[in-house]
Amino acid sequence: MPNTSQAIASAFSQRRALMPFWGQQALEENAWLGAWQEMNQAPLPVNSLAYVHIPFCANRCVFCGFYKNAWKEEHGTPYVDRVIADLQHAAARRVAGGSIAAVYLGGGTPTALSGPDLARLLRALQQYLPLTDDCEITVEGRISHFDRTKIDACLEAGANRFSIGVQTFHTPLRRHLGRKHSGEDAATYLAELSAGQEAVVVADLMFGLPGQDEAIWANDLDVALGLGLDGIDVYAFNLFPGLPIQRMLEKGVFPPMSGLPTQLGFYQMALDRFAAAGWQQLSNSHFGSGLGRERNRYNLAIKSGHSCLAFGSGAGGSHAGYAYSIESDLERYLNAASPAIARVSRADPSQHWVAALQGGIEIGQIDASLLPVACLPLLQSWQQQGLITLLQNSLWSIVPLARFWGPSMARALVDAA
Question: Which cofactor does it need (predicted)?
Fold first, then answer.
């Protein structure tokens, strides 16, 4: 590693990020309804967002911290009924104004729902939300659940972007992670989904997985780049306490975790592969093909602090200076009156610069003019280490390899303020 790369590799001892509700004051439960009413009386800004959570999975992947409810067929229709009722309830109380430029159906596994339920949910979103004409409407899915009938149902109901979790094309590793389909099956599926260009198709890959060496990661990148995809996410694996994979590591099912320097090398490999293929880096972890169909609109906007309306058990949103979450216990959610709020917090006005900081870091820039003076020595230190370079005036560019540390850089600047 050249000296600059060594400095980048040693810049942080761990990957850290700002957690949801950071820097916000939680409100007492008796103030939640008033806050929600206040949010409804504040017009949405132009190009806001909406998130719908589908909290079901047919099985738990060992690396995932989002598993909540086991999928059963009888869950689907009542759950969609409830989400549509929440959409209708909110629409009747929200003042006119503003627009929503991106909607994301996440989970869990949205594509566990039946085709008819997916279609009527998508149509309800268009009926009850002020979507822009070119709104990005994403359905997150897994190969196991997303057959041609469901794909067509989503397309006919207005979905224009599919995000498919793959993680790796290496079949033995996929089996260990809890994935049922082989790597070859996954590649064939994605190639067929992309071929018709009926919607933007994005796939997720992970690097730094236990047992994933350079050859496996290089093959994952090469396979993904050859499938006609519009976008590819590359995420560093983080081992959070309590995940099933942690117990598997302790029992020796997986080899030991790779260290951060190895993960940094994997990130550099991804940068090199995407650049050679003519792909554009749209955020720290997301790349779009040279065709330019992928906008990555929701992911960029949510990290920049845009207003986001939340629907469904476990969903989180923010608007008008508040952040809120919806009841995550499925039974309590289904039985509660709309909007089934489980938490509300108020943003600290003194932290108005944090969202702009995070949004800038996602596209590889830091605007020092937005930061408290206490942050400036850290920027000077990063310049000396080769992590950032001055573009103009107070605007700094994060060097490509250092974007691996993007969340850690945001956290460090906030801690320094």
Answer: [4Fe-4S] cluster
What does the pLDDT profile of the chain (417 residues) look like in tens digits? 445 688 899 999 998 888 777 788 999 999 999 999 999 999 999 999 999 999 998 877 777 667 678 878 899 999 999 999 999 999 999 999 999 999 999 999 999 999 999 999 999 999 999 999 999 999 999 998 899 999 999 999 999 999 999 999 999 999 888 888 999 999 999 999 999 999 999 999 999 999 999 999 999 999 999 999 999 999 998 887 778 888 888 888 888 888 899 999 999 999 999 999 999 999 999 999 999 999 999 999 999 999 999 999 999 999 999 999 999 999 999 999 999 999 999 988 878 899 999 999 999 999 999 999 999 999 999 999 999 999 999 999 999 999 999 999 999 999 999
d(CA 59, CA 174): 14
Does residue 108 have a cis peptide bond before it, meaning omega lies within 30 degrees of 0? Answer: yes
Q: What are phi and psi of 264, to 5 degrees?
A: -60, -40
CA atoms of 405 and 284, how far apart (whole Å): 9
Residues 6+ apart with CB under 8 A from 87: 124, 125, 127, 128, 129, 311
The whole-angstrom distance between residue 132's C-alpha and the CA centroid of its chain comes to: 21
Q: How far apart are CA 360 and CA 283, in angstroms?
A: 10
Interhelix angle 73-93/115-128, rounded to 10 degrees, is 10
> Which tokens belong to 263?
């993960």
Helix H segments across 18-94? 32-40, 73-93
Beta strands 395-398 and 365-367, pairing class: antiparallel
Residue-range domains of the chain with CATH: 1-16+349-417 (no CATH), 26-302 (3.80.30.20)
Q: Are 68 and 330 in contact (CB under 8 A)?
A: yes
Tell which residue, 4, 112, 20, has the closest CA to residue 328.
20
Tokens encoding 380: 């000077």
Rounded CA-CA distance 209/131 in Å is 38
Q: Which of 303, 309, 315, 299 is nearest to 125 (CA)?
A: 309
